[in-house]
Sequence to fold (275 residues):
Amino acid sequence: MALGAPVDVLDGIVHETARLNRWVGRKPAEELAMRLGLPVDIGNDATLAGLGEATVGAAPGSHDVVYLKLSAAIGCGIVLAGRPYHGAAGTAGELAHMTVVPGGARCFCGNRGCLWTVIGSERILDELESTTSDSASRLRESRGLDPDERLNQVIELALVEHDLACQEQLREVGVNAGLALVNVCNLLNPSTIVVGGTLVQAGALLMEPLRDTVIRFTRHLSRRPPGQRQRSIEILEATLGDWAEVQGAAAMVLRSYNPSIVRNLIEMIDPVDSG
Ligand SMILES: [Zn+2]
Fold:
């Protein structure tokens, strides 16, 4: 079970979170297990999406992977030495709340200057709506829609209608997400970064500045003696889409039984056939 909230993987309790606040303090895996009569494991959705991408998605076989989801919600999943890293209380990977602007704008977590306040969907849409561009009035009209649908609208305006304000906004998100990932690289030294979520559909517009930023500021991490092949960080687009969490959850369960059969069994979950 992949839940969009911090979950303590040892006792299954959902931690304080501004989203899913009615789930806080509950043990959803235990409740579901009672209703189904089957054992249920639980993990954070971004952590499990990262495990999915590192098992059968963009980076199969990579042992040290950081997955960043850039959607209306920002998530980060960490796979270290081939295993999902949950952290002491199940809150590892809260990249959205990394402080990047001391004293900056208020975030929904209660702190100021979190990454969310710089690249979150609300900031992107507020910035675009405040301009005098054609896109601004179009975006104001879509205020009632789901935030991910509105991000898709931004991408469409940028790619199809070549709206300069939207293009610039997506490039800026790429640079700022890249800078956050530089900090993660300095801490964890992953071999692979996988970027997924709604915004990755902007393709090169987002990914090029993101990739350039990470490569530019992490050269010191891959420097090797002359004549030796450099091992630079691979930065890939996610391939599993909305199925990443499902396949990661399957990987988590299956690896606890027999790691050698995990990949074959998960590949049997065919997203196309399953609709
Ligand atoms: Zn925050």
